[in-house]
Amino acid sequence: MTHLLEVQDLVVKFGLRSGDLTALNGINFTLNPGERMGLVGESGAGKSVAGFSIINLISKPGFIASGRVLFEGEEISAYPLEQMRGIRGNRISMIFQDPMMTLNPVLTIGTQMVETIQAHNQVSAAHAREIALEKLQKVYISSPGKRLGQYPHELSGGMRQRVVIAISLLTNPSLIIADEPTTALDVTIQAEVMALLLELCKHEQMGLILITHDLGVVSQVTEKIAVMYAGRIVEQGPTASIVGSPRHPYTKGLIQALPQGGSGRGRLHQIPGMMPNLTSIPPGCAFHPRCEYAMDICRHETPRLFGDADTSGLVACHLFANQGRS
Amino acid sequence: MTDSKSLVRISNVVKHFDISGGFLDRISFSGGKPSLTTTTVKALNDVSLNIVQGEILSVVGESGCGKSTLGRTVLGLYPPTSGQIAFREQRIDNLSPKEMLPFRRKMQMVFQDPYASLNPRMTVRQILEEPTHFHFPELSNSQVQDKVAEVMRQVGVDPAWAGRFPHEFSGGQRQRISIARALMVDPEFIVADEPISALDVSIQAQILNLIMDCQERFGLTYMFITHDLSVVEHISTRVAVMYLGTLCELADKKSLYGDPQHPYSRALLSAIPKLGSKGFAHIRLKGEVPTPIHLPTGCVFHTRCPHVDERCRREIPKLLTRPNGCQAACHALEEGRI
Fold it and tell me: Please, what sign has the CA dihedral across residues B228, B230, B231, B236?
């Protein structure tokens, strides 16, 4: 079976006057058709860069330095701009964080939807409107006919994000990349939007890459997780096993730092220090200055991914070096 | 919860903001005749709350429910439209700026965004010294400097960095500095308005621990405003749930999370993303939050409530004490329908 998406040793750099900055340092993962994956990490970990680089949306001075991205078996990372347009927003859609920034404030919802359809397909405006209506119904927008004539500012935040999801569905993509889709929304609206996204992915057999810092949302929606730290994937595997029994000290710390219901009012576990700046990533394992288990080897040798990808997952930590590589 | 321990008492506070704009904006024509209209945002509607000495009272609710307005009104940053605010049983909402001074020292605030709340042109030392000189004019320069160093150590920022500017610090460090600024004047009561929402998860835990440490060490009382319900469950003593400028439920943490009463609290709590849970089991609310310009009649929640009946549409429910000790404002609960 070919994978829906295969990312191989992807390295993304930003060319600065003071030299190249490595934002993404050799990440690998695969996604099967209809599979949902979470990319988790704190700000600056490189999770958004990872999402953007899949469809080559890295703008200057950033560039893909090496590695490949295969989508349905095609090497899309080698595509010229013109060919890439056939992929972006068509077979791979993207949902961004802030729906107010994604939607054009001076065009009606209908105009924006028809425009998207006609950019990718040769259809009449009337037919495009029909498709738009159908997709708005799919995301449970009340009186969709009326919404087509409205401007983004006339809708509430949750409704706008639903319109954005409807737009991303217009061309029946096989993969959706959602970058913090609910961070700007309230908790009840977040639950609605995420439940909708989950239902659509299951129903339409779409793959999903969910980029977020919220481990709770990830565990509700995805089947597997990749945890990122300072430009690398430090742990990846099935959601249940990573959330239930995290192995990498960073993942462990992240999960223990979350206030859990019923735990009383004790002190929260805290990871000392903060994520290093990309200009000064420590040698060896980037996490070692904050790690309570740091050994000598951690200070000079970067750990590779150890373990088994399908069962308990892979972990980039010298503590698990004896577990071999699948 | 006897009244004698009350530190801050909020009684029937109403806050309306007039947003009608200039004279020309207000002219409207009805039936061919021009008339002047006023548009008001009804941010707080008859909120009564008692903050007890030594507790962390969390105020939760979705954006636009008036929780920040409540925090600012309590501190006197907004004058209330009607109602009273008392600190240690002394009314403070009608004081002149001069009379208010001693209370400003006792009541401090920590803001959400540490990037916006620290003056970028002042060094950390200047930021911390300014309020101290202002409120304690009797202290000498060296005494103030000692105090700056001491407070910086208490919040976990190296005093050697006092000469640096805010942009040289990370978000978590800056939030420590804003907390230090509040602590400089020995306050008794701190309003923390979303103090951790701009921070990363691993940094959030550090700041929450600091907030709890300060409470123990200095015997502080907090009003903690947030939308993050898991954080609330961790740190609060009591929780006030707000919806559209109205208090729907006031309960101690355990009974709210174990057995939420008000239909809105139930929906809100069911929507918290939980680690390790698969899929969604949240209570779906119909419709959208109405605007605070045109409040629904009766119970403000009736347009979305699954238990609505005729009485809810016409009569505003009162906050009543429930068998489990918490207070909720709901007709359906009062009548035993749910």
Answer: positive
pTM metric for this prediction: 0.86
Distance CA B37, CA B205 (A): 49
The identity of residue A153, as a single letter, is H
Say if B310 falls within a structural domain.
Answer: yes
Cα within 13 Å of Cα(A159), Cβ side: 18
Q: Is B280 on the interface with A (CB under 8 A)?
A: yes
Q: Please answer whether residues B111 and B178 qualify as being in contact, where contact means their C-beta atoms are separated by less than 8 angstroms.
A: yes
Asked if the C-beta of B62 comes within 8 angstroms of chain A's C-beta atoms, the answer is yes
Work out the mean pLDDT of chain A and round it to a whole number: 89
| Smallest Cα distance from A123 to chain B, Å | 34
Q: What is the pLDDT of residues A51-68, one digit of tens each?
A: 999 998 888 889 999 999
**Domain ranges, residue A294:** 5-91+171-260+268-323
Q: How does pLDDT run across B248-303, given as a tens digit for each residue?
A: 999 999 999 999 999 999 999 998 888 877 778 888 888 778 888 899 999 999 99
Are B250 and B325 in contact, with CB atoms under 8 Å apart?
Answer: no
For residue B229, what is the nearest residue in chain A, using CA coordinates? A187
Residue A42 lies in a domain: yes
Contacts of A189 in chain B (CB under 8 A): 62
Q: Tell me whether residue B338 is in a domain.
A: yes
Residue pair A175/A207 in contact by the 8 Å Cβ criterion: yes
State the number of CA atoms in the 13 A half-sphere of A67 facing the CB.
22
Element of type H or E holding A110 = helix A109-120
What span, in angstroms and rounded, lies between the C-alpha atoms of A256 and A241? 15
* Interchain proximity B278–A257, CB inside 8 Å: no
Chain A positions touching B276 (Cβ under 8 A) are 219, 240, 243-244
Residue A158 lies in a domain: no
Token output for A65: 């330095």
Which tokens hold the place of B4?
């004698």
| Token couple for A177 | 């990349």
Which domain CATH number covers A217? 3.40.50.300
Q: Does B285 fall in a domain?
A: yes
**Domain total for chain A?**
1
User: Rounded distance, CA B196 to CA B192, Å?
Assistant: 9
Of A43, A187, A274, the CB nearest to B271: A187
The residue in chain A having the minimum alpha-carbon distance to the alpha carbon of residue B65 is: A186
Domain that holds residue B317: 243-338
Give me the residues of B, 82-141, that contact A with CB < 8 A: none
- DSSP string spanning A11-73? EEEEEETTEEEEEEEEEEEEE-TT-EEEEE--TTSSHHHHHHHHTT-PPTTEEEEEEEEEETT
Could you tell me if A201 lies within 8 Å of chain B, comparing CB atoms?
A: no
Looking up tokens 């002219």 gives B27
Q: How many domains does chain B have?
A: 1
ipTM over 0.85: no
Number of DSSP helices (H) and strands (E) in chain B, helices first: 12, 14
